[in-house]
Each structure stands twice: as C-alpha cells, then as structure tokens.
Amino acid sequence: MPTYVLLMKLTDQGIKDIKNAPSRIEEAIKGWEAMGGKTLSFYSTMGEYDYVAIGEAPNDETAVAFLLKLGSAGSVRTTTLKAFPKEVFAGIVAKLP
Fold this sequence. Notes:
The chain is an alpha+beta fold. It is built from four helices and four strands. A hairpin with a 6-residue loop joins strand 2 and strand 3.
C-alpha cells in the first residue's frame, strides 16, 4: 500500500476545542481504517505543525477522499506527502538514463 506523511495544523476551531482533540484524533484514525487505511504512527509535535501522522492507504484516491473528509470537519488543515520506501526509490533511480 502507498505510504503517506500527513502534516497537520490546528485551525482556530480546532484550538478552541482542544480538550476534545484526543477523541477527534481517535475518531479520525477509526475513519481512516474504515476506508482501508492503516495508521503506522501519530504524533503531537512542537513547531510549525501540531500533528504528524504516517499511514498507508489502498491508493491515492482513498487517501484524498479521507483528507477531504478530515479537512471539511474544520479542526485541522493538512499537507500530505506521498512517501517512497528506500527500495522503491532505488528502483526509480536505477531507471534513470
């Protein structure tokens, strides 16, 4: 399954309701898994982003659908990176002319 790194920033709405953040996070993880995704790790972070998650999804379309759902809830804004394992990266580089 493709791997994704999800960078999240709390919105004004999200920070105002921060006491409910742990339950929102668990609900989001359950929603991700219900769509066929797998959460590999989740962190609350200091710095530019408030949360960082690493997960897998069956395909890009599933990942985008989840991210649209997550964003439409209004508590976080996301930046998503598709990640390639080092073995896949090595294969990509090997195809270079």
